[in-house]
Automatic annotation (TrEMBL):
It is found in: Periplasm. Pfam families: SBP_bac_8. This is Substrate-binding domain-containing protein. GO terms for molecular function: polyamine binding. Its main location: periplasm. One of its GO terms (biological process) is polyamine transport. It comes from the Bacteria. The keyword Magnesium does not apply. PROSITE patterns: TAT. It comes from Flavimaribacter sediminis. GO terms for cellular component: periplasmic space. Keywords: Periplasm, Signal, Transport. InterPro entries: SBP, Sperm_putr-bd, TAT_signal.
């Protein structure tokens, strides 16, 4: 299996990459002054330094990347400090609606961006709740993933089809438990029969908290990120948990056991992320040019080969297949965009302070 995509000739040699600034932007030594700039608050996983350098070489526009921690902390920070210093910001799922409600973003005409118009799967231009009455989108979709059951086929003999498996005492010490509350509350809500995991009242939240504490007691540890969870799956400490479908492929590819996946019968949540245009952005035109660049087949294929997940960009997927990465494409459902619309989207809790306090109780429980 190939491990790298070919770069354009422009990127040959480390010298062509220029200097990396503290904020994460790259400059080519061939240009003394930037012709423009984009201040891009984005997930670190979306950043391809070579792509940023190439964009600068071709346009003179410098991209300044500002890293994000989480949906909740990023929104809280921007709500307090404002968004005027940024041009593009990112969010997952229906968190985008919070930014619209706070008057931080403006809709985007995706068909006015050439690479988006030509390369994006059509479904992603019409996501319910994220499209305006005049057909514009609140974000330019990038990646997506459902969060479903993944399991070690050597240790879990029958494919689990319910969240109940996470509570099964026979898996004590072998259940994955992640410090990602947005994906954990839905588990409890589904098991309790609640309609919306992000609109639970005090009584419901208390019962949901009890469910998550029980699941946590079946876990050997609380994982803080995917790399830690990957290691535990590979070494056989964790046998079962909630993750994206492509994680099963990644575990096996990294020397771990053969993994299976199954969507819970109760239903499941997931995310679609993307870039939002800041309202009255100072560098609006340059920001739209950057969106166009990252939706080129080259940038998409490079990024999704490195950080595998569902993809909103058909041209990037086709390039991966042409490069011989069919297995990665299929493992991550990249060629099945309809799967993205079988999941419910995570959103901001209606009572964020109550949810934060309840989650802290879950983490502190023994």
């Amino acid at each position: 299996m190939k491990t790298h995509l070919k770069r354009r000739e422009l990127l040959k040699g480390a010298a062509a990459l220029g200097a990396v600034t503290a904020s994460g932007s790259l400059m080519s030594p061939r240009r003394a002054h930037a012709a423009g700039e984009v201040n891009w608050m984005a997930w670190g996983g979306h950043v391809e330094p070579g792509g940023i350098a190439e964009f600068y070489d071709e346009t003179g526009i410098r991209v300044n990347h500002i890293a994000m921690n989480s949906n909740a902390s990023t929104f809280a920070k921007l709500k307090l400090s404002g968004v005027s210093q940024y041009d593009l910001i990112e969010a997952d799922g229906l968190w985008t609606l919070k930014y619209l409600e706070a008057d931080m973003i403006e809709p985007i005409d995706l068909d006015s961006i050439p690479n988006v118009k030509a390369n994006m799967y059509e479904q992603f231009k019409h996501i319910p709740d994220l499209v305006t009455s005049d057909g514009k989108m609140l974000m330019a979709p990038w990646g997506w993933n459902p969060t479903i059951l993944v399991y070690n086929e050597d240790e879990v003999s029958e494919a689990p089809d319910s969240y109940e498996a996470l509570l099964d005492p026979k898996y004590k010490g072998h259940v994955a438990f992640s410090d990602q509350h947005e994906f954990m509350w839905p588990i409890a809500a589904f098991l309790l029969g609640y309609e919306d995991p992000f609109k639970m009242n005090d009584s419901q939240l208390e019962k949901a908290k009890e469910i998550l504490i029980k699941i946590k007691r079946n876990a050997p540890t609380i994982t803080k990120g995917w790399n830690e969870q990957l290691r535990l799956f590979v070494e056989g400490t964790i046998w079962i948990g909630m993750s994206s479908p492509g994680r099963a492929y990644t575990v096996t590819a990294n020397g771990g056991p053969k993994m299976g996946t199954n969507p819970p019968k109760e239903g499941y949540y997931g995310w679609i992320d993307g870039d939002m245009l800041v309202k009255d952005a100072a560098n609006r035109e340059d920001a739209l040019k950057w969106i166009n660049e990252i939706h080129s087949a080259d940038y998409v294929a490079t990024n999704f080969l490195r950080l595998q997940r569902g993809c909103a960009n058909r041209a990037g997927v086709e390039k991966l297949i042409a490069e011989g990465h069919d297995d990665i494409v299929k493992a991550n459902f990249m060629d099945q965009p309809e799967v993205a619309f079988n999941m419910k989207l995570i959103r901001a809790p209606e009572y964020p302070d109550k949810y934060a306090a309840a989650w802290n109780d879950v983490l502190a429980a023994t």
